[in-house]
TrEMBL record:
Species the sequence originates in: Streptomyces fradiae ATCC 10745 = DSM 40063
Signal peptide extent: none
CDD domains reported for this sequence: AdoMet_MTases
Gene3D superfamilies: Vaccinia Virus protein VP39 (3.40.50.150)
InterPro entries linked: Methyltransf_11 (IPR013216), SAM-dependent_MTases_sf (IPR029063)
Stored Pfam families: Methyltransf_11
Identification of the protein by name: Methyltransferase type 11 domain-containing protein
SUPFAM superfamilies tied to this protein: S-adenosyl-L-methionine-dependent methyltransferases (SSF53335)
Domain Methyltransferase type intervals: 26-121
Superkingdom in the source lineage: Bacteria
Taxonomy of the source species: Bacteria, Bacillati, Actinomycetota, Actinomycetes, Kitasatosporales
């Protein structure tokens, strides 16, 4: 992997610079841990969290030789509630932030950020007119039908939610897809007060 990507298109849009120069970082919903391992290889102490045991087992195998990378299994809100370590950056790439009620998650994130720490997340573009919790229907392990909730907001709504929970320097935008591709990427950047 050659870059830290916020979008699903290689080399498109900003990279790890959105996280500043963190010494420590927490990724929420890291799945394959590509971004987390990229950061760890550059000297950041990274905790990468995912609730899927399958993802965690595979990522631990793939990145076992990367120093400074801790891959944890757990649900984002439960993990944030359970500890008190703070991080210079908390981030999520199409990850847990998209799948978690921000009213519950945002206050927990802010308590786990060091003063002045950055909260940055991305997810797929929200179609016009959609706002709030949206169930996604699909098939889980062994073909079982399952529903997963996703929180879909326009950038300005995400910005308002971040401010409502005390974040500052909020920037939220939808980065259009490269030519010929359909789905843009919402990127939200925010900071807790120093
Ligand atoms: C669409 S995948 C994206 C993952 C990865 N960041 C990427 O860019 O490939 C979303 C991941 O978030 C995880 N996830 C969803 N909700 C979560 C939660 N509440 N806590 C922890 N992980 C969660 C899922 O298990 C899944 O691996």
């Amino acid at each position: 992997m050659t870059a830290f990507e916020w979008t699903q298109y290689e080399g498109h849009g900003p990279g790890a610079e959105l996280l500043g120069q963190p010494r420590t970082a927490l990724e929420l919903g890291a799945a394959e841990c590509r971004e987390a391992s990229w950061l760890a290889r550059r000297g950041v102490r990274v905790t990468a969290l995912d609730l899927s045991p399958v993802q965690v087992e595979r990522a631990r195998r793939w990145w076992k030789d990367v120093p400074g990378l801790a891959i944890e299994e757990g649900e984002a809100c439960a993990f944030l509630r359970a500890g008190d370590q703070t991080y210079d950056a908390v981030y999520s790439v199409w990850g847990a932030v998209w799948f978690t009620d921000p009213q519950e998650l945002f206050p927990l994130v802010s308590t786990r950020l060091a003063p002045g720490g950055l909260f940055v997340f991305s997810h797929g573009e929200t179609p016009q007119g959609l706002d709030g919790r949206r169930p996604m229907y699909g098939k889980g392990p062994e073909g079982r039908e399952m529903t997963v909730d996703r929180w879909c907001h326009a950038p300005e709504v995400w910005a308002g939610l971040a401010r409502e929970h005390g974040f500052r320097d909020v920037r939220a935008r939808c980065l259009p897809a490269p030519t010929g591709q359909a789905l843009g990427t919402i990127i939200v950047e925010a900071r807790v007060p120093a």
